[in-house]
């Protein structure tokens, strides 16, 4: 339940980094592909056009024309992956914009405030995302700092709500992020500590950043036991179709990933028989749809041969049609997961598609 | 009347160079912007994916999913503007592909055959498009050759229809193209000569290629008197909204131009008060639609500020929304022209918008 409606979980959040889906999709296209909740990036929008501009234009909902739920990330991940000349301290993180080198400082408080101004229904607390593997001592200190940052985030929000008239930022809620690298004890200690803050939702961050998939699943098993049982759980930045099914089996409710749109833009399309590379010569005169069972505009109206031609000819319609398809696939995947959970057939579903969805489709 | 339906003229043909509209528009988007007839490019499609592939996939209609009328150009214009190492002879034109340097030969017969295989409803005879200004003697010889090429095109088509079973290329018709540069006598002589061939339609080519607009209008006046009065007239590659209104006043029925889509991709949008440059800083927080009277997806759903943000952020959604708008504008312009002609108010309409549509909109 968010200010912009209710969500059916497990759910995949469709990533609109700069208040638009890469590949030329608008908010109305998002509805057409079955998206329930969009995710926008604080780092990018803070740099351009800036949260004050977005706020004047009706927040992200008004700005991009999206009237359903919206989550923003904290910007932390991008600060640690995109920005330059990064300097982290107890107070926050200072960095140079990757666009123009401008010096920017982000604290737990300012990260929260930016997201509130952007108008997120759900915002994420600032954390440090450490690449795996990293030294135990560094991860320990970083996770402790991330926990203190979450405390400050919670205090900031309480303070805002207590002091300002009429809750100027509406019903937005902030979620905390579990860190601790690949170390079971750090993960568990951190999770226990942030659970005490009684945030309305919790994410697991710092996964799918260098470690083996089996390690990611292990961490989910270990941390899952200590996550509040009645609150939504979000696995950040994950992942492949099979990653998602496996994480759902481990209790995860929310996902986001740039992979379906990025793969689409490179001609890699998901089907229920595995991934297809549409740039392949074999599709040159293939008059079948990419996936005969799919209801997206690409599969309804066009052939594999036409899509391949568009890629080869450098037409951006290729990107658009491919992204429409892959996002439809991901949102359909989530619908199937929900249906199978409801029907008590999730175990069979999981088994049916293991080793299939992340592999290559037969020609 | 074409094999794929009837057209209301005057009409603007929306340009789908490589069987797709630049800016990420599909055939279904073309319908949404009010397009009656699409135009594809023989030169580009011959190079990639090749007419045999297109033919196997149902011709251009099946290939791109477009079920309304379709015109293809002859490839001549691109041979003379894009290709390299061009060598023209009585037989035809030899050139190197701009993609891979492959040597290609195009004759009046092969240009027609390629277009028939592509499945055009209306195809254009091969001509030489000479840039203006050019020496009188060269233009004279070139125009005479273009006339002889049209004769060969007509003979080829007759031969095809007489010898092959069941008219394998359906009801496609070929139109002739008037040339003669900026020389009144050459234009008139050429027009008289090709009129004798009794083609079902005639185009005026070789305009808007370097000469002043007033010269173009003058040539239309001069040639118009000698065009068959009962056959459609097509002004190739023209033009601005005011060019189109002026050419309609001179009896032209068909237009095509890459300008609306190209301008859109550079942030220049047409409105009934003139052109706007959406990259301009002044639109940063402008919460109005580009044109409140427009029914395109951009104007219905988004603000000027959002479109500007998309351009600044490098999102291809910017290109798509802007192209959707400009093509809607052009197709609406043609609708208004038709309505005003029907209502007997075209003269007032022409006067009302003279000096407005091609100028800059007030801030």
Can you give a write-up of this model?
The structure is a homodimer of 363-residue chains. The first copy, chain A, contains 15 helices and 13 strands. The first copy, chain A, is globular, with a radius of gyration of 21 Å. In chain A, helix 11 (259-265) packs antiparallel against helix 14 (316-342). The mean pLDDT of chain A is 95. In chain A, the strands form 3 sheets. Chain A has an 8-stranded parallel β-barrel with strand order 1-2-3-7-8-9-10-11, surrounded by 4 helices. Chain A has a 3-stranded antiparallel beta sheet with strand order 4-5-6. A two-stranded antiparallel ribbon of chain A has the order 12-13. Chain A is of the alpha/beta class and 363 residues long. The A-B interface holds A 18-28, 44, 48-49, 53, 56-58, 63-65, 284-285, 287, 297, 301-303, 305-306, 309-310, 312-313, 315-317, 319-321 and B 18-28, 44, 48-49, 53, 56-58, 63-65, 284-285, 287, 297, 301-303, 305-306, 309-310, 312-313, 315-317, 319-321.
Which features would summarize this protein structure in a list?
homodimer, 363 residues, alpha/beta, eight-stranded parallel β-barrel, three-stranded antiparallel beta sheet, 15 helices, globular
């Amino acid at each position: 339940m968010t200010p912009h409606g209710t969500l059916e979980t497990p759910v995949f959040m469709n990533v609109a980094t700069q208040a638009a889906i890469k590949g030329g999709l608008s908010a109305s296209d998002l509805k057409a592909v079955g998206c329930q909740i969009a995710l926008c990036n604080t780092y990018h929008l803070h740099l351009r056009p800036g949260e004050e501009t977005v706020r004047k234009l009706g927040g992200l909902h008004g700005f991009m024309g999206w009237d359903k739920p919206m989550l923003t990330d904290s910007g932390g991940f991008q600060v640690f992956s995109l920005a330059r000349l990064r300097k982290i301290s107890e107070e926050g993180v200072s960095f140079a914009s990757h666009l123009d080198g401008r010096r920017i400082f982000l604290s737990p408080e300012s990260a929260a405030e930016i997201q509130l101004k952007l108008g997120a229904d759900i915002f994420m607390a600032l954390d440090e995302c450490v690449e795996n593997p990293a030294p135990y001592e560094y991860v320990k200190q970083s996770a402790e700092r991330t926990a203190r940052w979450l405390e400050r985030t919670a205090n900031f929000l309480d303070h805002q709500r207590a002091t300002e008239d009429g809750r100027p930022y509406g019903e937005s809620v902030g979620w905390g992020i579990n860190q601790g690298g690949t170390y079971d004890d750090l993960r568990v200690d951190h999770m226990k500590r942030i659970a005490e803050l009684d945030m309305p939702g919790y994410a697991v961050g710092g996964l799918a950043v260098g470690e083996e998939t089996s390690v990611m699943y292990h961490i989910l098993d270990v941390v899952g036991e200590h996550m509040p049982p009645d609150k939504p759980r979000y696995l950040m930045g994950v992942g492949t179709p099979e990653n998602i099914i496996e994480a759902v089996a481990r209790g995860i409710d929310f996902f986001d990933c740039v992979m379906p749109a990025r793969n689409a833009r490179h001609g890699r399309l998901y089907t229920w028989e595995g991934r297809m590379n549409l740039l392949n010569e074999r599709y040159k005169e293939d008059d079948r749809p990419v996936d005969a069972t799919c209801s997206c505009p690409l599969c309804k109206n066009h052939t594999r041969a036409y899509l391949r031609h568009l890629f080869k000819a450098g037409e951006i319609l290729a990107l658009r049609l491919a992204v429409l398809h892959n996002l439809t696939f991901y949102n359909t995947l989530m619908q199937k997961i929900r249906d199978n959970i409801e029907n008590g057939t999730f175990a069979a579903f999981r088994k049916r598609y293991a080793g299939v969805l992340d592999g290559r489709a037969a020609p």
